[in-house]
Amino acid sequence: MLRLSHEFKRADWRRMLSEMTATELADWLHFFNETPFTIQFIDHAFSGLNFTVASVFGGGKDLSPEDFSVLLRKPAVDMDDEIMMAVSEGIAGGIRYEPTNSGSND
């Protein structure tokens, strides 16, 4: 609803909601599901522009416009135990705690 009121340049979204019918609201939501909002449209345009500039000057073959988008975020990749142990070995100043039955001969 806030995006819809932003699109219509209205700060009073509650009043705007009270002035429209449920059918009208559903029609606008259906329309904006197919047509991007202004912020999404601007982000899409600038990510495409940044991708073009990076492709021309950088020549990266593995880039895509989604890499330059501010709004689109890739989901975090779950790391398995071996990767986390390898990463944690590089942390300086840390103390590593092991379970008591880890096989150490102390």
TrEMBL record:
Q: What is the lineage of its organism?
A: Bacteria, Pseudomonadati, Pseudomonadota, Gammaproteobacteria, Enterobacterales
User: The Minor tail T domain covers which part of the protein?
Assistant: 21-94
Name the Pfam families on file.
Answer: Phage_tail_T (PF06223)
Protein name according to UniProt: Phage tail assembly protein T
Species of origin: Proteus mirabilis
